[in-house]
Fold:
Amino acid sequence: MIKVMSLAIRNLLRYKRRTLLTGLLIAVGVMAVIVFTGLSGSFKRAIVGQITDSVLSHLQVHKKGYMASIDNLPLDRMIPEKPFHKLTDILDQTPGVDGFSPRIKFGAMLSNFAQTTNVRLNGIDPKKELTAVPLLPSRIKNPLNPDVLLTPGQVLLPEILAKGMGIGTGDTVVLVANNKDGSVNGMTFVVAGVVESLMGPGGRDGYLHLDDAASLLRMETPEISEVAVRVTGFDTLATVADRVNQALTPMTTPKGQPLFEVHTWQQLTPFYNVVRMIDLMTLGIKIILIAVVLISVLNVMIMSVYERVREIGTLAAMGTQPFRIMALFVAEGFCLGLTGALVGAVLGTGVLWILNLTGVEVAFGGANQVFELAPSVTPGEVISACLIVLLVSVLASLQPAAKAAALEPVDALRHV
Structure:
């Protein structure tokens, strides 16, 4: 085997220019795959992290039927007090649940005493909300108190709405809301900060304290619109969601229907389709790499066989077994692919290292939110790209190698 590999390398070096060009083509392909995988992966992690850690959390629990009409923020499909306490007991006892936060979601009229407009609001318990969405404070501009997210009597307003109405931190505003019975109530609040917009559901909502939301809606007993749940490990999300679902299944309505429904972040935001599109694009880039390697190595091996017919005939006439001739050409394809893959892997990881040093900023979404990416790839992704190249290189060499091995010595020696 060592002799075969030595001969293969020597044969490749006999045609330096062709070997160099083919190797460079393979290396550029591997580098492109590694760079694209690193950039797309970091973009996906940044967007998903922002959506789950500052708005949605990892999964949400609603009363059955709430999600079907969530655009209207229905107040007649809230989780009553008694089932809510049972739900919190279940979440406390479910392995993998890191924290959860109850929310009251409703629409209201916002007035700055000169203008009035509609606003979507979330009533939250600030301490519990931070356990479910720890990055929420990073979206607040000009906070009244940087150490405290929110206190009773304060409201956080969406950035676009506050900017349009000329409202700033410390201003006094009035919120007017209808409860589920249709009665109207109004309360004054101090603006504690402005919430930066984010793409997706809930990305342009305001926030106020849970007790203020219950008072504004004149709730006689506390009711909850949704419970946002954060899991300890993102990879365990499906397992934890299944555990919560199974624990809630026995809780039913008097008619025997399920009382709750559980949704993961993938089911709550249309951005999940963008994530799937990124995965498909990554697969497409890998398929292009396979095609590049396949065509390049196949072309080189075919040319090599045609140029060395008399040489192959001489080897066969000297008693060299056909399988050794075939192994020689397969080894040449393997060496070509291995060299290109290693050079491409070094170049690809080097480009990602430079991008990490310089930084990559991407604006995304209707709000043109800017994300700073930290592109990186795992060793497994680099190894898999190299293995794909090696496998395709060997496969591409098989047909020309088989053709060389099948040449008759007399016919080969007569070849001109």
Remarks:
- The longest strand covers residues 97-111.
- DSSP finds 13 helices and twelve strands in the chain.
- The CA atoms of residues 50 and 117 lie 28 Å apart.
